[in-house]
């Protein structure tokens, strides 16, 4: 089969939330068929189905087995793919739905967060050559013992990109409830604009910063296999944002997105001996408790003593403080304190790679507004600053004005 | 494994209709484990789930593909088996749930009404020997191309009995919303009583007469493999009714059940030539339209002319009359007429096999009440009479009094 005529499309929960929306999706698929495409569709569960199923499980047990949760949750996608097949039949388009098991979407056995190990394309190619639309339940797979697994929240994006990779298509469309990737949250910054293009690394950085429209693993997959991912809305026919290799981008902004998140808290351990092994010990202990640490800054003070500051999710703060207080005694530090009212404001852009002085310019902007920067961390394509949360909105707006509106 | 220590239990939709009911089922399973049983459980979809899913499909299309309906409906049982596994884990009983696909419940490819072709016991025996409760999604299987199939309404009963057969257990418990099989509908006959035992053939006859508690195919399976099926309620610990081989029954009543149904209409074609091929032609034409004919009576009149009366479902009456009117012209009969206000009152009992004069006694009872019998048909273990529907309740009560209360 000519892979250039195959398109993979993924429709998220809001796009298939009702029988009416499912029929609208069928019409959209028809328009692609009329353009000569063979269509492979990945669907999520309808609307709030996954949450409803989780709610049912919670009524049975507070601590459900992950294997059984995957058994439970995988039904949501199975329902929507059967309904979409019916909607296509209704408008005289031949279509067939498959579960993850039926197309041998093989994963490891890590229930609730499984990784794709391989996909058999035989059945998909056979159905496509029979002129059928192939509809695949997203989010799910099976392990080598035929247990049902799921890929974690948002995993249907990964299903779609992985299918694009094995079917060797160049393009994958992800239909979601937003119409693309914006330079900032439109609810806060009125001058925000939709990006036509964004690189894989910027998209990953945005996902890490909580502003991601896509499941990070799907972006990693897209990067690895060079898939162009078109993020767009199923409620309009407007173009969205294409996530693509940086080399192919037509225009590269120094900064393509500004984000702000307030779901983390800062912890500081003061004046502990600055000797090897201390940090390793601290972060290993946190890792054992599955506490995810985001930003880390270590400063050297006097008398060979250092302070370490880092951020964790607010829900992990209590546990983190217990661990740190215990370790602080052992290390002989002076104190452990925490701050919850912080915001992490970040600027992301591939242009930073080739542009000097971006960090300095950002610090200047903050200084002009008398905003104190409590922590700074940088990556090749991003700068994050921890500031007091009362300045979060101001910082977002002023950075957007300085870097995005000005471009 | 010692099959005599394995019990197969099936819990119907009302038994698992809510998280609370599912927890109650888990407790019941615990009580069997404590008695030393290895438990294999078959579950139906929760409460009205199947109807809800059918409703969703109807909103998408009036004419859903059977393959996709099976894909859709099979999710209901998958949800309840995952939840039951969680409920067992919650009370520290190891359990694992399997879909039809996972235990290779192989069927033919007749979607929506598939027949079981074979079941692999490897995975079930393995899990039982690991001391797990094995929970299996009822109603579903897969065909040889790995498509999901369903066994038709009530098919979970068949799943359970088929499992009892392949696991070579003697007993299968079917938990339902009634606590057994009664001699008549308790809503009409107050003196009705629960039968301790009933034979396979009586149960099949009752199912045909619309008074069946079990899916007929499950009873055929039970008969074929000699499985004792215990029909009982999940809302109490009382004994229900055991469906068993007639030879093993302790007491055989002449009549074990009286039923009445009013969902059929009578059609009569009068004075058509009494020659070979006429009836065949008539019922073949009806068969082509998938119209199910229940009772048939042919009477010979004068001049080599005969009348044929038969009953069909009321919803098929219009179509039936169209076909009969057309054929009547061709046959040269005098008229076609129909009557909707009829009742089919039946008496069922294995005792009839060895008891003379039951039919005569029934006719006498009707005659005493001036109830006119419009059609009669008999089988080895049953007699059915068509009467005017105004006498339905009276007939049921008087037959029950004469044959059941008197025993």
Question: Would you kindly provide a written description of the structure presented here, covering whatever features stand out?
Answer:
The structure is a homodimer of 407-residue chains. With 407 residues, chain A is an alpha/beta fold. Chain A has helices at residues 19-34, 49-60, 66-90, 122-129, 155-166, 200-208, 216-225, 278-288, 317-331, 358-368, 392-405; strands at 6-11, 38-43, 95-98, 105-107, 116-119, 133-137, 140-142, 148-150, 171-176, 197-199, 228-233, 241-244, 257-261, 264-273, 293-300, 305-313, 335-339, 342-348, 375-379, 382-388. Chain A has two domains: 3-177, Carbamate kinase, CATH 3.40.1160.10; 247-407, VC0802-like, CATH 3.30.2130. Chain A is built from eleven helices and 20 strands. An eight-stranded mixed beta sheet of chain A has the order 3-6-2-1-9-11-12-10, sandwiched between helices. Chain A has a four-stranded antiparallel beta sheet with strand order 13-18-20-19, sandwiched between helices. The A-B interface holds A 19, 22-23, 53, 56-57, 59-61, 63-65, 67-69, 71-72, 74-75, 78-79, 81-83, 85-87, 89-90, 96-97, 99, 101-102, 146-148 and B 19, 22-23, 53, 56-57, 59-61, 63-65, 67-69, 71-72, 74-75, 78-79, 81-83, 85-87, 89-90, 96-97, 99, 101-102, 146-148.
